[in-house]
Amino acid sequence: MMLSESWCFEQKVQEKDGKERERNQSFPWSNFCMMKKDMMVQEHRAFPRTPLVLCEKSSRLLAEVRFSSSKIDGSYLAEFLLEKGYEVHGIVRRSSSFNTGRIEHLYKNPQAHIEGNMKLHYGDLTDSTCLVKIINEVKPSEIYNLGAQSHVKISFDLAEYTADVDGVGTLRLLDAIKTCGLINSVKFYQASTSELFGKVQEIPQKETTPFYPRSPYGAAKLYAYWIVVNFREAYNLFAVNGILFNHESPRRGANFVTRKISRSVAKIHLGQLDCFSLGNLDAKRDWGHARDYVEAMWLMLQTDEPEDFVIATGEVHSVREFVEKSFKHIGKTIVWEGKNENEVGRCKETGKIHVTVNHKYYRPTEVDFLQGDCTKARQKLNWKPRVTFDELVREMVDADVELMRNNPNA
């Protein structure tokens, strides 16, 4: 799903005092679930898992959304559904610390965490019993499964876990719907990913492009994709796969490449950091804004017949270009020197090196190029992206400048 997942959580940074330190980003797991009068969403927070949403349009909506450090869709989807009058139920994984930072503003009373139209339940995609219990209690009409271990680079280290959550977890959820007797009343959305295309077989990639995943994450998501298709064909379940290309926002997890860039550029702008390291600068992705993409998720479940859709902007930009535009927004021009692991990004105005390359941020098998063709979504859903690439970069940098100004240790 995400390019930025190629960069692991260790970030070697050179602080203002000139000393290099390893910053280990750790993220607690949790699951968050949303509900409208007919829907449920679940999202898991922990190692980057994605969101799941279950919805019901007339009585109760259970939306399970996992608000993880890597996933940002759940919070935007919760906002979107609440604005449409949904009652949102979220599934959260138990943690000794609060892990609902992205949705605190959605509480009826954020200071006291008092619930209003958003209600939370404890649960997990690895626990089929709890899924059956929650779904049977809520009886949602729409379900959005955004739950996953979604960090591509980490999936090489946690391959079995990734398969259990991203692949078998989807099966557990589908089986729970069937066990609860809701096959004929529930609409199911599965958060699929452009990582399915991996070693791309055609450019651009569309719904009929052959899959060739290049990571345990992509392979697990491939199983999830096909088990959704199987339930659709075997049991006539209204189930769809949303093959979403990279989508970002200021809420992106700190160990994903786009957010790592915007955070580092903000710190450099404020004099809190001198240099940061990245992996494959020439990897190219189709980047959009998460807020635009959650609307597409909802639209897929409003159709008469279930179909799978590619959601993308159709534009391609490299990591290198993301770096350049981020620095340009704070008045710095980056000039590249050297090759491969010896390449550096130097500020033209000051001569300082702000970007270096570190091979540890490369994936064992890279995905070099992803470009989506969302013609089908444009025609059948009347959907199109609104936020441009330049607007996305500026929004992320501005948000992190404000964040670091108020909290340099963020």
Strand percentage, roughly? 15-25%
Low-confidence stretches: 1-38, 43-70
- Report the principal-axis shape: globular
Seen as an oligomer or otherwise, the chain set is single chain
Number of continuous helical runs: 10
Q: Taking all residues together, what is the mean pLDDT?
A: 83
State the fourth-level CATH superfamily of the domain at 59-244.
NAD(P)-binding Rossmann-like Domain
Give the biggest sheet. Answer: 8 strands, mixed
Helix content: 25-40%
**CATH C-level class of the domain at 59-244:** Alpha Beta
| Structural class based on helices, strands and sheet pairing | alpha/beta
- Compressed to H and E, one letter per element, the order equals EEEEEEHEEHEHHEHEEHEEEHEEHEEEHH
CATH fold-level name of the domain at 59-244:
Rossmann fold
Total number of strands: 20
User: Terminal Cα separation, in Å?
Assistant: 25 Å
**Measured on Cα atoms, how large is the radius of gyration?**
20 Å
User: Which CATH-level-2 architecture of the domain at 59-244?
Assistant: 3-Layer(aba) Sandwich
Description:
This protein has a domain at 59-244: 3-Layer(aba) Sandwich (Rossmann fold). It is an alpha/beta fold. Strands 3, 4, 5, 6, 9, 10, 11 and 16 form an eight-stranded mixed sheet that branches. Strands 2-1-13-20-19-18 form a six-stranded mixed sheet. 31% of the residues lie in helices and 22% in strands.
Strand and helix map with partners:
Elements: E1 10-15, E2 20-24, E3 30-36, E4 39-45, E5 51-55, E6 63-66, H1 73-83, E7 88-92, E8 118-122, H2 128-138, E9 142-145, H3 152-155, H4 159-179, E10 187-193, H5 216-235, E11 238-244, E12 247-248, H6 257-269, E13 273-278, E14 284-285, E15 288-289, H7 290-300, E16 309-311, E17 317-318, H8 319-329, E18 334-337, E19 344-347, E20 353-357, H9 375-380, H10 389-406
Cofactor: NADP(+)
Family: Belongs to the NAD(P)-dependent epimerase/dehydratase family. GDP-mannose 4,6-dehydratase subfamily.
Domain NAD(P)-binding: 73-396
